[in-house]
Amino acid sequence: MATQASRAAGRLMISPAVILLFLWMIVPLGMTIYFSFLRYNLLIPGDNPLVGFENYQFFFTDPNFWPALINTLVLVLGVLLITTIGGILLALLLDQPMFGQGIVRVLVIAPFFVMPTVSALVWKNMFMNPVNGLFGWLATVFGLQPFDFLAQAPLFSIILIVAWQWLPFATLILLTALQSLDSEQLEAAEMDGAGPVSRFFHIMLPHLARAATVVILIQTIFLLSIFAEILVTTNGGPGNASTNLTYLVYSQSLLQYDVGLGSAGGVIAVILANIVAIFLMRMIGKNLET
Amino acid sequence: MARESTPQRKIVVTVIAWIIALAIFFPILWTILTSFKTEAQAIAIPPRFLNFDWTLANYVTVQERSNYFGHFMNSVIISLGSTILALAVAIPAAWSMAFVPGKRTKDVLMWMLSTKMMPAVGVLIPIYLLFRDWGLLDTRAGLIIVLMLMNLPIVVWMLYTYFKEIPGEILEAARMDGASLGKEILYVLTPMAVPGIASTLLLNIILAWNEAFWTLNLTTSNAAPLSTFIASYSSPEGLFYAKLSAASTLAIAPILILGWFSQKQLVRGLTFGAVK
Hints:
The complex is a heterodimer.
Chain A: H1 4-35, H2 54-61, H3 65-94, H4 101-109, H5 116-127, H6 134-141, H7 149-152, H8 154-179, H9 183-191, H10 196-223, H11 228-233, H12 245-255, H13 259-289
Helix pairs in contact in A: 1-13, 2-13, 3-8, 3-10, 3-12, 5-8, 8-10, 10-13, 12-13
Chain B: H1 7-34, H2 39-42, H3 57-66, H4 68-99, H5 105-117, H6 121-134, H7 140-164, H8 168-176, H9 181-210, H10 214-218, H11 226-231, H12 241-261, H13 263-270
């Protein structure tokens, strides 16, 4: 079908994209790996000697490392839990016939389009601030002590903010999947006397499983790299209570100028993300064949 | 999946759905309302919902104190620039992969996808140091390059899934009629591909506009787009809720509008075609 000439033209047309992406990812990643084996601090002039795995050793024994790793996982799992379960429930609700469905959909999706710095600052100041925030006011209305969200439960507060941003994404994808469900199948089940609960567990949930997996995997990729929300709300604190791996690497390299140590952290972050990526790629790859 | 439902049931569902939707949307609504209050009313107890003196003063102040419009234009230039550059590179690539697939096409696609899985922090340090040496820190050009490369895999993938849906027979027919490759692209393919390209454009403007890792790390003032500028409100000075709200409202308004147009494309783009 394709001629020799069009093959060659095809290759020529792909190459800019391939070359650019290669330069963008492979070269800097190679540099990160190389830096991670150097004693390299921007504040200390002179040679940057090779030191083997010293940086990794420092990174793993850094008192901030394990908390950061745990915070990363808690952040990812917390947001996933809220958005996946909330997303399924919301998608089921939005799939029902109602008045003003279009507007409801638009309202629910809106948070996804708010830039991270805006949503984090709005939540931090106008809702979670114990003195001037709406939650503080609500607490006093009910006769409770206002709760200082970001000081007393920093990680939980960030989970709430991030979940608010990602709930629309999960809902939208699950709703799209739900709408592709064959309604005849549901009607047949109904005829056979399947109640709403058994219809949900035996027909809808298996149908949603694929979309839910995609939601979980894609969100994980993004959630492992949460940064802006932490930077503008807590700066990783108090102490290291809301420092994740991305923020730790940022603070070691760009705040403390330790390129070698930061690079070692970057490599670890890449490895962690790749574990997830392998599963995601397999799913998408399967889809490509059909 | 529209099924029979009784009117009562429909009303109950409507009420529940509206309450939840309004609760989810409330922070945005509250930000927009607060942007029209005075600073004192913005923190008034009990909170003022609609009973306040509407004012545009915050919008004026935000512009006067910090050249807001300059940052807004940075966002426009950076998101448009990076998206158009990405399209220029991705359209030929996606076209050839969709219509002249080779043995390795699938591998190339998967490899491109894998670059997107790489956490940005893994390449932050080299990019930062290279940009420092090349004088690209805090420049619009630098950010355009980074955001273009960052979104390139999504652009290629989205275009690929759209181009795949264009029937190949039409191209065959054009070729039979003696159309050259250039003419084939210009007169046959382009008109059919425009909707897909437009959706890709839209989604990537949104992603670039809201990007907040590279913008925060690579810009400080001159080239700072809105996402970086808004972050400067993280160190509070006096009363600032109304000003923060005004700056935020202007920063999210264009994208909220674009976003509502591109709901469907969002699903396809962000799932790399895995959910349509």
